[in-house]
Amino acid sequence: MTSRLVTSLIGLGLNSSSSSSSQLAKRSLSIDGRISAVTAAAHPTNVGVVQIGSHRRPIHTTAAKMDGKVILVENTNRNMRVMEYAVRGPIVIRAGEIEKQLKDKPGSLPFKRVIRSNIGDCHATGQKPITFIRQVLATSTMPDMFLQSDVFPSDVRARAEEILKSCGGQSVGAYSDSAGVAVIRNHVAEYISQRDGVKTLPENVILQGGASEAVRSILSLLNEPVDGQRPGVMIPIPQYPLYSATLAEYNMGQVPYYLDEDNNWALDIPELERAFLEAKKNKIHPRAICIINPGNPTGSVLSEQNIKDIIKFAYDHNLMLLADEVYQHNVYIGKFFSFRKVQAELGAPYNTLELVSFMSASKGFMGECGLRGGYMEIVNFDPQVKATLLKAISAKLCSTILGQIAMDCVVRPPAKGEESYDLFMKERTEVLEQLRTKARMVADTFNTFEGFKCNAVAGAMYAFPRLTIPQKAIEKAKSLGQEADFFYVKQLLEETGVCVVPGSGFGQRPGTYHFRTTILPPTDQLKEMLNLFKEFHQKFMKEYK
Ligand SMILES: Cc1ncc(COP(=O)(O)O)c(C=O)c1O
Questions:
Q1: pLDDT of residue 90
Q2: 311, 346 Cβ separation under 8 angstroms
Q3: What φ, ψ does residue 379 adopt, rounded to 5°?
Q4: Nearest residue (CA) to ligand 1, atom 1
Q5: Listed residue (328, 335, 325, 297) closest to 462, CA to CA
Q6: Given Cys at both, which of 54, 266, 327, 443 links 294, Cβ 3.0 to 4.6 Å?
Q7: SS (H, E, C) 438-462
């Protein structure tokens, strides 16, 4: 260990202005903390070389080096530097600063609180956890305390016992198989089979730390050039930025296709053809098409016919289908059709298409975002491809067991006649009914605003209204180097405390402006938010029209 030397200028107190750079280069600290022999040589051009084991690595003498850092932003992964994730982007960072100001200096702003409508984080906005899920989690975590007592209903205890039997050492603290706890994978397979009337194998179910992890695993699997062309994935515009961010991180091609706003954000097949051809022209090889249904940020629910057409398109273009169905329980208008079911019903040859569908414990009626539970079902995979995917996943060991248990409770809720059934149904219905009411309220209210057009929120947890921004405001935004919708949303935040995300963070047709708001705040807060919004919008229009 002592031979591995690391310059540690801060540790040596050598980062003061009195230390010359040659002094800095001449001292070093071993990993066990002792000052060792001088191994770093100062270079006349201010590029030093430090001996670490048998490697020599150049160190650039910059202001950052004065702090003893060898990792500087300019030598970090460039893909990570370019990726963006608007849902937690600059507007949200500003909201955090405003919250701090309100706390430190109450009364210093014309509003009392920030209303966070930027992220689909259900519990953060006040939604209560489902009792059954939390009781199963508590019992699984503390079996000595709860298994033998009658504090919790008998079906809760039976469920926890069943899961624990499938866990190493009967503890949630043990790693599971990389693809998840066996009994939970069985339950997921039963859920899909029942939902869709198709046979689903537990071997095709992979439990993951949220749907995000699953999406990332699959995109990574596809990250290989084909015929010398860069791999790409077709993604909707607007889209949930997990996709654009991950593709940027993996340096894969983004193949954007526009959703049809005038047709409730449906997918338009000629537009898919256009996007596909354009990618090929740009030497990008589309390998998969991603569909988010119900839609984020659009709040749309796709029709069965549209899903059929998409499956045919994917089949005809040799694309894997990635169906992000995390909002399958959040449907307020119409009906949810899973890609799995429609594919099976289409029959040959479409039922041979590779399909991955994603589900999460974070959304629906449960909203357990923090537990990080999710799964993917992989269908029609080549066995070797599947083995490669599982190998890659095994390097991450396994997803969190508590997240897996939350997922179990979602796919296998209490059955009629079981002790927890009534309360479970009451809580589930309450959450979903409130969301339904709020979905309608938000769209209806926005449609009364001058220059707003908001499609019905048929599903998911978001509205994505289109707004007409006056030319004067567009010019003003330009002069500040901002997108017009960013400018609008930032003004809204600064003047009212209402935090939503500009449409540019999700992508939109050039020349159109949108923003995304969640429908999650409690009804009274949502009403307050819409009133503040209205006043702000009227003022904004007066100022810039
Ligand atoms: C469409 C979509 N997919 C995936 C996710 C990620 O969900 P999870 O919390 O399971 O990672 C989200 C989260 O908002 C989402 O909206």
A1: 85
A2: yes
A3: -120, 140
A4: 296
A5: 297
A6: 327
A7: HHHHHHHHHCCCCCEECCCCCECCE
360 CA distance to ligand 1 middle (Å) = 7
The better pLDDT of the pair 10, 481 is held by: 481
Phi-psi map region of 178: left, alpha, beta (phi>0 left; psi -120 to 50 alpha): alpha
Instruction: Grade residue 124 by pLDDT with cuts at 50, 70 and 90.
Output: confident
Ligand 1 mutation target, pool 360, 411, 517, most atoms within 8 A of CB: 360
Look over the chain and give the mean of its residue pLDDT values, rounded to a whole number.
Answer: 87
Whose Cα sits closest to atom 14 in ligand 1? 120
pLDDT greater than 80 at residue 454? yes
Query: What's the CA gap between 430 and 432, in Å, rounded?
Result: 6
State which H helix or E strand residue 357 sits in. strand 355-360
Q: What ligand 1 atom has the least distance to the C-alpha of 362? A: 9
Residue 314 is part of a domain; what is its CATH number? 3.40.640.10
pLDDT confidence of residue 442: 96
Query: If phi over 0 gives left and psi between -120 and 50 gives alpha, with beta otherwise, what is residue 322?
Result: beta
Residue range of the domain that includes 256: 204-397
Which residues have CB under 6 Å of ligand 1? 120, 210-212, 240, 242, 292, 296, 324, 326, 360, 362, 369, 374
DSSP 468: P
- Domain for residue 539, yes or no? no
Q: How many domains does the chain have?
A: 2
Nearest-atom index, ligand 1, CA of 87: 14
Q: Does residue 312 fall inside a structural domain?
A: yes
Residue 467 falls inside a structural domain = no
Please indicate, yes or no, whether the overall pTM of this predicted structure exceeds 0.90.
no
Helix, strand counts (H, E) of the chain = 19, 19
Q: Is there a domain that residue 538 lies in?
A: no
Task: Count the neighbouring beta carbons within 10 Å of the beta carbon of residue 476.
Answer: 17
Q: Residue 69: what pLDDT?
A: 83
Task: Tell which of 397, 422, 441 closes a domain.
Answer: 397
Instruction: Give Cβ neighbours of residue 525 (< 8 Å, ≥ 6 apart).
Output: 115, 125, 126
Task: Identify the domain boundary among 76, 103, 128.
Answer: 76
Q: What's the 240 CA to ligand 1 centre distance in angstroms?
A: 8
Assess whether pLDDT exceeds 90 at residue 47.
no
Together in a domain, 222 and 371: yes
